[in-house]
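Researcher: Next entry in the queue.
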Amino acid sequence: MKTPSLWMIAAACFIAPASVAYARSAYDGSWYLVFVTQTGACDPSYNFTVNISDGIVTHPNLVKFRGYVAKSGSVRASVTVQDKFASGTGRLSGTSGRGRWSGRAGGARCTGYWTARRN
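Model: Structure for this entry, 119 residues:
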């Protein structure tokens, strides 16, 4: 089984089986995300598509995650996969978004930014 890269973990920062029920969100729908590493020995970039429904972001391949998109568009999330961890914050507005992420894989640390656009 292929071990998820730190990018997949960072990406999971936007995947949330939330415990709080949200009303229909202005951000619901499909979003294309790009993660870019600025410091550390992680992959230079990683991209994928997620779905937001009722303020909850989902992706079928990631499990241990906590996060959400608030009504204001504020995004906060974290994920752990084996010895890898990443967390991120940012904001969505209309059809785009931007934020920062940081993480670690074993002893290595990485940081960077993410961008989003509505599909």
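Model: Strands lie at 29-39, 45-53, 56-58, 65-69, 74-81, 84-93, 96-105, 108-118.
Researcher: Noted, moving on.
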